[in-house]
Amino acid sequence: MSEQASVKRQFGHRARLALSPAGVRKADDQAHAARTMWNLLHAWWQMMPKEKRTLKHADAAIRQAREDIDFLAVLPAQAAQAVLKTYFQAWRNCWDNRADAPNFKGRIRTVMSVDIPQGRDLNITRVHRRWGMANLPKIGRVRFRWTKDLPIGKRGNEENRITGARLIKDALGWHIAFRVQTLETEPAPHQGPQVGIDVGVTVPIALSDGETYEHGEWLTEKEQAKLLHLEQRAAQRKAHRKPGERTSRRLHHTYDQIAGLRAKAKRRALDWQHQTTTAIAGTYGTIVVEALSITNMVKSARGTIEKPGKNVAQKSGLNRSISGEAWGRTVTMLTYKTARNGGTLHKVPAPGTSQRCSACGFTTPGSRESQAVFVCKNPDCGWSGNADHNAARNVLHLYRMGLSLIPAAGRAVVRRAKRVKPAAAR
């Protein structure tokens, strides 16, 4: 009997940090220094001739910058090296047509983060059931929320260990994301049944076997009322601000409260998506989804001055609902979780799945009478049922007919960077 092959996998685990006000200021300074380092690297890249755009010359440039610019010294040397490696990897991704060309990072829209490349620098210990502690370079010993067992002490070895971490700031504060490397055996082929999935706004996930996964509002009524009140307050204060006048601290505080509530809603949505996709990936061996072009689906309907759009307000509401469901993120989760369980994920063309009758195979006008009801208008059929269930059955039918676009889970989608010629950018 042959042994199963083992592979090394990288996983991420995110935990909340309990930073003091002084620690928050230090982490903020490091994140701004890391962003500035990236921008300096990008400016250096644009100025240098092609033959000098090497890792060696870039390393010498950032070392000199850390000596000449005082505030860059707050960034640990290992974190500065991580910025350099990330920048060069961004160009490799561009040359391989996997991403757009790197650009300058703005202060407002850039996620504040600091990399800790070496796991041994963290010196993680567990304080008690709810909290652990880790060393953060140039910040000190900091507590973090212990929500998942980490491979430390006797549990850590060359096969299962923490290889590094990244500090990330969002609207709810600073968090630490550990990079965990573990040795796992290749999963055996999943023997579960096949299933088609239809995603929607009214019913978020409908399966071809009749199962549905739904959720309520991400914020409670009290939280929604508070969010509305904060948005109205922010609009009033912004309206009274003179052109060119700096944003007041009160308005900044209001913006922070709005961002905190929206971040809380996003976390709840992520938690629901993780639980739902884990259950689906563990139950079914072959999962079939639609190859949706979500970017085109959420385009505005305003049109132009010569040809104005129709039902613009309704289309805007639909766009917000589609973006809120994050269908692409659901498919991404299903992709890696299905592969981890030994299953496969396939994509099929999306057009026509909602109008075709899954019982007789005919597409007749007006069969979908409403968002939830499908009644086949074929005189020889007359089948009726849930519209989302019908669409999911059609998705599975397309796969069984051999119309799969992506044959297996985990295959990367290659795309060319916009307005960039990779060969000329080197």
Give an account of the 3D structure.
The protein is an alpha+beta fold and 426 residues long. The chain has ten helices and 14 strands. The strands form three sheets. A seven-stranded antiparallel beta sheet has the order 2-6-7-1-5-4-3. Strands 10-9-8-11-12 form a five-stranded mixed beta sheet, sandwiched between helices. The chain has a two-stranded antiparallel ribbon with strand order 13-14. The chain is globular.
Protein traits:
426 residues, 14 strands, seven-stranded antiparallel β-sheet, globular, alpha+beta, disordered C terminus
Mean pLDDT: 82
Helix content: 25-40%
Listing every helix as H and every strand as E from the N terminus to the C terminus, the arrangement reads: EHHHEEEEEEEEEHHEHHHEEEHH
The side-by-side strand order for the widest beta sheet comes to 2-6-7-1-5-4-3
Structural class: alpha+beta
Q: Could you tell me the radius of gyration in angstroms? A: 26 Å
Termini separation: 51 Å
Supply the number of helical segments. 10
